[in-house]
Amino acid sequence: MARMMIATYVMFIAYLHSSLSDDGHEMEEFLKREYSLTKPYQAIGVSGSSHWELMGDAMVTTDQVRLTPDMQSKQGAVWSRMPCHLKDWELQVHFKIHGQGKKNLNGDGLAVWYTKERMQKGPVFGNKDFFTGLGVFVDTYPNEEKHIEAQKKRYTPRTQRIFPYVLAMVGNGTISYDHERDGRPTEIGGCNAMVRNLKHDTFLFIRYVRRRLTVMIDIDGQHEWRDCLDIPGVRLPLGYYFGASAITGDLSDNHDLISMKLYQLTVLRSKQEEEDEEEVTIPSVDNMELHRNYYEGEGMSGIAIFFTVLFSMLGLFLLIVVGLVVYSHWNESRRKRFY
Prior knowledge:
This protein is an alpha+beta fold.
């Protein structure tokens, strides 16, 4: 009987956990087929009635949408024709990156978009620069590291990243993606993700709920999500377009999109919360300067770190000495008053 009660309790907790969002609000999800891209890809076409549209070197096969082949100087994309007006949503992306190149001899990566603009070629993983909206990038080539090596400089363990690397950026139409620095100046969060040439499936999870952006990855073949970034205060307008793009340069890879499934999340809000929620017209991130300063701080050299620690220790030592001297004088004067 006790075992049955424990089992019932565990099942109840599991159900409760699955029905709550990250901040404890009750939530349900519904697949939105009109915003999803799955096999056999019948939603892709050139007619106005199709839901998705190809661009550049992208092509459809029976197994995937190949954004770029493993060839130099290619770029391709697939974009939704329908603007999305969902307030809370979750996007699950099944993708594959593979090619003949060895480690760090491949590139450049793919991106998943929720932006105001669509179907515009450019240098940011096959999309235009100065975009308006959200970009989540799977960057497979360390441009900044190679640039530093060419200058015969060295990374410190604190600044070096392991590639491939997943990062997110929110643009307002006036912010440029810094390709040479792998997007560090405008990154709001990220994680390393070894996704190339794997035999098992790889997935990217993007959730936007109550102005909180969460990105997770499933790349280990264990069917478990791993945290990548979780940022509150992300403000994205309604009516933007979903898409995916990829690009190759001197180095290349096959960038394949197997599916994109969009779920509408129904989060219960009080009437007061609905009234207090302002309409967002320009994408932004609250306290963006804090995120930017954190990632810019990664560039501090080993010498700078050494002197920072050294002077901090010297300052602490000086405070201790002054404190001991002051205490000694006070104690001496206190003793004299008793004689």
